[in-house]
Amino acid sequence: MRTFRALALALVLAAGAGSVASGAYHRLPRPQALEELSYYPSGRHLQLATLGHSETAADLAWLRAVQYYGEHRRTDNRFVRMEHIFDILTTLAPTFEPAYVFGAFALAQEGVDFRAAERLMLKGIEANPRSGTLAFELGFLYYVRPGGRDLTQAAEFFEQASHQRDGPPSSARFAAYARQNAGNLGVAYELWADVARTSPNHFLREVALHEMERIRLAIDRHRAELAMHHLGTPRVLLHE
Q1: Rg of the chain's alpha carbons, rounded to an integer?
Q2: What is the pTM of this model?
Q3: Is the dihedral angle over the CA atoms 61, 62, 63, 67 positive or is it negative?
Q4: How far is the C-alpha of 4 from the C-alpha of 46, rounded, in Å?
Q5: pLDDT digits (tens, 9 = 90+) for 42-73
Q6: Where does residue 179 fall: left (phi above 0), alpha (psi -120 to 50 degrees), or beta otherwise?
Q7: Are 188 and 180 in contact (CB under 8 A)?
């Protein structure tokens, strides 16, 4: 149940910007179709043109980005320029983490372009290598990838998040869970052992000990499936 709540929280974080998009869509003047393209020149050229006012330009780019998302979600559901828009925004404001998260989940779901979402999140981690928040969200993106989870990649980034000061407290548990269900039982055992040793939560320590026992049994019997949970195939990232 706690794992489900943590998953739900990650979804809420990614979905929260949707309300901002709705507000921007209704409050800002909407550009015409041809004008829309003029708002989004290349990120590097726009950065030079801001003449030292990149933060102000980034604020405008954020409003235009969520407006673009909101307008196309309510009309044609075509997001052909969304990757370009969020690339510009994050070039102007490379430390603005919500832009990476919102943009990536919008690209993966509404844009149906997981690779673009992945590129945006990797750009965010490159610009913010110590961000536990971005590492966790990228791990979660891999964990709920439509059409098939990538548990190995998910585990990598959950582990990365667990070593950062701002990483969610659930990062280590998610890493252990992902490793276990990817069949990496030895690594999963050590990760669960760390949760059992360090977690201040009695319930989580019990969960960790239970999973460690499952893994020991699976290893003893040479049957990895005994330690693996039955995970469904994700179809969507966010729910209305």
Answers
A1: 20
A2: 0.75
A3: positive
A4: 42
A5: 545 445 444 444 566 677 778 888 888 888 88
A6: alpha
A7: yes
Task: Tell me the residue type at 133.
Answer: T
Q: Which long-range contacts (CB under 8 A, 24 or more apart) does 210-219 make?
A: 211/176, 211/177, 211/180, 215/180, 215/185, 215/188, 215/189, 216/189, 218/185, 219/185, 219/186, 219/189
Per-residue tokens: 49: 């043109």
| CA atoms lying within 13 Å on the CB side of residue 37 | 3
Tokens 């980005």 belong to 65
* Of 164, 176, 50, 49, nearest in space to 97 by CA: 164
pLDDT tens figures, 105-135: 999 988 999 999 999 999 999 999 999 999 9
What is d(CA 120, CA 221) in angstroms, rounded to the nearest whole number?
42
Of the candidates 139, 108, 146, the residue with the CA atom closest to the CA atom of residue 232: 146
Per-residue b or e along 180-202, where b marks 16 or more CB atoms closer than 10 Å to that residue's CB: bbbebbebbbebbbbbbeebeee
Angle at 72 between CA 67 and CA 73, to 5 degrees: 100
